[in-house]
Amino acid sequence: MKRIDLFKKHLAEKRAVKIIAGIDNFDIENVKNVVTAAEQAGASAVDVSAKEEIIEMAKANTTLPVFVSSIVPEDLAMAVKAGADAIEIGNFDALYKKGMRMSAIEILDIVNETLRLIGKSKVFICVTVPGHIEIGEQIALAKALEELNIDLIQTEGAATVEAQSNGARGLLETAQVSIANTIELARNVEIPVMTASGLTPTTVALAFAAGASAVGVGSCINKLRSEIEMIATASSIVECAKRFAPEKETVNA
Questions:
Q1: Mean of the pLDDT values across residues 245-253?
Q2: Helix axis angle, 167-188 relative to 135-147, nearest 10°?
Q3: pTM (two decimals)
Q4: How confident is the prediction for the chain on average, in pLDDT?
Q5: Which of 240, 241, 194 has its CA nearest to residue 91?
Q6: Virtual CA dihedral for 137, 143, 144, 150, nearest 10 degrees?
Q7: Which of 47, 113, 134, 208 has its CA 20 to 30 A from that of 53?
Q8: 4, 6, 72, 194 from 156: Cα distances, Å
Q9: How far apart are the first and last CA of the chain?
Q10: What Å distances lie between residue 83 and 15, 145, 181, CA to CA?
Q11: How far apart are CA 156 and CA 179, in angstroms?
């Protein structure tokens, strides 16, 4: 069985959890801790940056499928050659901090160039739909990606929101845009949707309720100081995903 088959199985069961180290995280020790936490927690996949030594380290330290994220087609093609189990055009939150914004046309250009570079390589492909563009554009982009036979789309939105409250209310405010985008996209395309950006153990269940087949969780884990904290947080998210899996999926499994 290929590594990616685990993620596909959890995706079909609508309980996939991808733990994200960060598109711009090149701290190999931190990434290793995130990878270990994902493995120990029983996550569905781990997502790392497009650097060959980080990809090799991740592959050597987990049996989980390894996603590699970038917005550079050449880096994604490198990742495929380096053994990535999946590639992702995204995540964009780190870019927003630098004042960058990606349009739907730019995303499609990157996708098409990546497909050209990887040729006939059989690799799972996920594309993040920018959360800052108008929802009609998001839906149109998702449909275009579906026509290109992309395997999965990921929502986002935390970078467009500044929480005004503390506690649980603030966590809901941070996650609301990505979850709302999930509702809209899941209604309009058949391609599975993964909710990411701003999720925490408090809000993961809401993403699945909104129609997500998977969640991508990053900063609430990769910003923690210790591996033990990372494992505990990742485990709580995985358990939430299992509890929220549709009963009919569990019965038929």
A1: 53
A2: 50
A3: 0.90
A4: 90
A5: 194
A6: 130
A7: 113
A8: 23, 24, 19, 9
A9: 17
A10: 25, 24, 31
A11: 8
